[in-house]
Each structure stands twice: as structure tokens, then as C-alpha cells.
Amino acid sequence: MGFFVALLGRAGIIRYTKATGAVEVLVHPARAEATPPSVFISPSTPFGNRVWLRRVLEEARGDLRWLDKHFTSSAFEPLWEAVDGNNVSRVRILSLYLADAHAGRKVKRDYDDLKTEFAARGVVLEWKVIDSRLIRDTHDRWVIGDATARNIPNVNAIFSGQHSELNQSHQNDELARLFEGYWAQAKPIEDAWSGNTS
User: Fold this and answer.
1) Which residues contact 5 (CB under 8 A, 6 or more apart)?
2) Residue 77 exposed, middle or buried by CB count within 10 Å (0-12, 13-18, 19+)
3) Once rounded to an integer, what is the mean pLDDT over residues 57-78?
4) Order of strands across the sheet with 88-95?
5) Cα–Cα distance, 198 to 179 (Å, whole number)
6) What is the distance between the alpha carbons of residues 67 and 76, in angstroms, rounded to a whole number?
7) Distance CA 79, CA 99 (A)
8) Cβ–Cβ under 8 Å, residues 119 and 136
9) What is d(CA 52, CA 180) in angstroms, rounded to the nearest whole number?
10) H helix or E strand, kind and range, residue 162
């Protein structure tokens, strides 16, 4: 054990004080500066799956666009944790309207609360829904910043730990254009809540 502790100390991973037996961890793998290009999601790492989602969201700068046909409000918490008004000025969510997942009073209240808290940070939050016929040619889900993009599974797959990956994409400009085209055809979720879909 002493040799291993000494080796970790020489590598700069820990600081060990022999007199007190205190060990200070200096390098934590999950706190690396950059999120790896590909992160594996697994049922055996439910907590880590959520942390990696938050870290992917933290990568975005400027306009954070999230395209997930099956987006659910369970993603509001990692959004709240990740979005910093110094880095992000706008968060836009684009999904289908899922009556069973989006129509409840709690979803509306949570959305309004998050919108209010983001406004206090200087961040605009918008959620639009699109007719499935207008987006049938798109399968994947993405988180797109001004200079970054990630291909990610749907929120429920991440939270339930279905085997999947959060992969870096090098198609940022193309994905941003795709998102903007869909965004222009979508309606604010408030219209769906009020029954105004025209």
C-alpha cells in the first residue's frame, strides 16, 4: 500500500501527509477539463449518466439549441444546473407535443419557474413543438451550441440508462441550419397548452 500511495503522489494524483495519514485527491477523472468526445451511457451508471448530460449541456456557448422529438421536463434539472448566463444567452428546446408528457400542470409550472430563473441569469428560455410530419426526415437528437454539437439519445434513454452514447459531432453548422429551419415551422408550447395550434 505504501508503494502505491507513493506512486500516486509522484504522479501528482494525490497529496499524502505521512504524519497525519491525510490523503488529498488532486486529480478526479470525472472533473477533467473537457468532456470526452464520446461518453457511454449505461444502466450501471445512473448517476454518472445525468452528470455527463449536464457536462454536455455546459459545453454550449451562446445559443443552446436542443432538438429532441421526445423531450421531457425531467431535463429541466440538468439544464438548470448547466446553464450559466455568462456563457449562454438563449436556450431553445424543440420537440414534438406529447400530450401524455407535456400537458400536466407540473410541467407547465416547472417550465414557467425555469423560464423565470433563467431570465434572472440573463438567459431566454423558449420551448417550441413541431408537427411530426414536418420533422419525419430527422431521427437523431442533438444539443447544439454556437460552436459545438453533440448527438445524444432522448432524455428518457439517458435517465433510464439505456445503452447509448453522447457523441461529439463535427456538423455544427449543418445542424444549426437544420434546427433553425424546424424552429421557423414550430409553435410555442404555450399554444399547444391553450389549444391554439393554428
Assistant:
1) 14, 16, 23
2) middle
3) 96
4) 38-41, 164-168, 149-152, 141-144, 62-67, 88-95, 124-129, 187-188
5) 21
6) 14
7) 22
8) no
9) 26
10) none
Cα gap 114→76, rounded to integer Å: 7
State the Cα–Cα distance between residues 153 and 12, nearest whole angstrom: 36
Sequence-ordered list of residues with C-beta below 8 angstroms from that of 172, at least 6 positions apart, any chain: 144, 145, 147, 148, 149
Contact predicate 50/86, CB 8 Å: no
- Record the cell numbers describing residue 55, joined without a space: 457536462
**pLDDT band at 29, cuts 50/70/90?**
low
**pLDDT tens, residue by residue, 170-180:** 999 999 999 99
Evaluate if residue 2 carries a pLDDT over 80.
Answer: no
136, burial (CB in 10 Å: exposed 0-12, middle 13-18, buried 19+): exposed
Q: Residues 182, 174: contact at Cβ < 8 Å? A: no
d(CA 85, CA 103): 29
